[in-house]
Every structure is written in C-alpha cells, then in structure tokens.
Amino acid sequence: MADTIRMTASGLEVGDRPIIPYIEGDGTGPDIWRATVHVVDGAVRHAYGARRQIEWLEVLAGEKAFKQTGEWLPQATLDAFKQYLVGIKGPLTTPVGGGIRSLNVAIRQLLDLYVCLRPVRYFQGVPSPVRHPEKVDMVIFRENTEDIYAGIEFQQGKPETEAFRALLKEHFPKHFSKVRFPETSGFGIKPVSKEGTERLVRAAIRHALANGRDSVTLVHKGNIMKYTEGAFRDWGYALAQREFGAVEIDGGPWCRLQDPASGRSITIKDCIADAFLQQILTRPADYSVIATLNLNGDYISD
C-alpha cells in the first residue's frame, strides 16, 4: 500500500512505499526523467531490495500542462507537492524577454521553498580546470524567494511603468535623479527582508553544526547595495550572535561560535561577491558553508 510522507517533530516520516510526485519537464525533460527514474529506482533496490520502493505520481507543469489543461502551473500540482512533501521537477520552459514568468520561480514562491541547497564537491577522476579540485567541498545555501528573482518588474512603455516612474519622481526625487534615461527605462524592485535572511542563515549555521563544518560565509555586494545586500550581511551576523552565541573576533565583524555538542568552533565571516568568485577558484579550502542571496547564489552555484 502506498504511503504519504509526513512531517513529525523529529523530521520526515517515510514509509516503505512513499508517494513522490514528479514533473517530467519540458525540452530535454522527458529524456532526463527516464534516466533519473531508472537510477533512483535502481538505488532503492540496491539499498532495500524488494522491501521498499517509490510510488511515482506524475503531476503537470509547463508545456505539457498547458496542452492538457490550458494552465502552465495547475493548482492540483501545487496541492500534490504540499500533500506529499517531497517531489522532483524537471526543467521547465522560461522564455527570455517576454511570455510567461518563470515557472521555477513561481513554484519556489508559492511553496515557500526558501533554501536552494547546493552541495559542490570534487569526485576523483573527473577532469577539472581548477588547479586543486580536491580542495573543493562546499555547501551553498541560496535564498530562493526574494531578491530580484521576486519578479517585481515594470516593462518600459507599459501604463503601470509610467505610474511607477511618476511615483518615483514625485515622492523620491533624489533616487529618481539617479535614473539616467527614465523615459525609456524598465524598472525592477529588489526585496530583501530580515525574516528571509534570518531563516536562511539559521539553516546554514544549523547545517554547519550538524555536519562538522568549520565556517559559514555570508556572500554579498553590500559595498554597493547597502540596504539590501549590506543588510543581509548585518542581519546574518546579528542572528549568529543572538541565537548561537557567536562572539566577535578582534572587534568583528567576523565572529566565532562553539558547537555545544563537540566543542568545535565555527567561524562566521563574510566576503564581497566578486572577490568570493575569485577565491573559490584560488583558495577553495577556505570556504565550507556559503549563505547568500538569490542572484549571487545562482552565479556561485553554477
């Protein structure tokens, strides 16, 4: 009999035949899915024999959903992910410039999937352009619901854009004066919240504690975007001190906390994004857990 995965106080409760919904995806999605299901089912057989298996449940999104239902992202698909808690998704169409908004971003926001967790490590024998790839072993926590990926944009020439431009000009003339060509500009808004920052950094620090990691690095462009990415940095340090007892090192802002279980120390530090992109190639051993905003996380993990 198929089982529904449940969340308990101790974590996920998974039966012997869990139901897992999947989105096959667009483009190469069907080919990727055929290989994926073969590998995953094979891994389950190898680990558990005939005792356990996954009951796959197809749900629709993207081109396949539009052809069958007239909707790009049916509510039934979102309901299935909410009910069964664990799911898998193939690549979905995102037109450049026009057309529908990103379905990937929509799913993240509607299900509040605020952490995009991306482990990056070297596998022996795989060719790499990095001089010492064996030193690469990082876990990236990318904030997944905010930043410019929130999709709050105003297309040049649209009535709502003219209204936004007029509001900016009337109420924020100092900021409006910085727009070089206001009449022909599109606009975007970059929301970064204290709550969104804290839950991401909290998850990153907890991961470091649970997995024997020696540092958490907050990656940002706070030198330029002081009240969004700079605030991300400041809120991250404040959370480490308030909730995990981190203490500033030599007057800060870097700080250090002790793992109460093992006595190990974990360094909480930060790095400007462009410097970080250089240093993960030249000094990868200096970085372990990374906590960063949405756009930076996209660049870094790719």
Short structural description:
This protein is α/β, with parallel strands linked by helices.
> Architecture of the largest domain, according to CATH?
3-Layer(aba) Sandwich
Question: Assembly state here?
Answer: single chain
Secondary-structure element pattern, one letter each: EEEHEHHEHEEEHHEHEHEEEHEH
Give the CA-CA distance, first to last residue.
40 Å
Structure report:
There is one protein chain. Helix 7 (194-210) crosses helix 8. This protein is α/β, with parallel strands linked by helices and 302 residues long. It has helices at residues 29-48, 63-69, 75-84, 103-110, 159-171, 173-176, 194-210, 229-244, 273-282, 294-301, and strands spanning 6-8, 11-13, 19-23, 55-58, 88-89, 115-121, 137-143, 153-154, 187-188, 215-220, 247-248, 255-258, 265-272, 289-292. The chain is globular. The chain contains 10 helices and 14 strands. It has 3 domains: 6-113, no CATH class; 118-149 and 191-301, Isopropylmalate Dehydrogenase; 153-188, no CATH class.
What are the main properties of this structure?
alpha/beta; Isopropylmalate Dehydrogenase; 7-stranded mixed beta sheet; 3-stranded parallel beta sheet; 20% strand
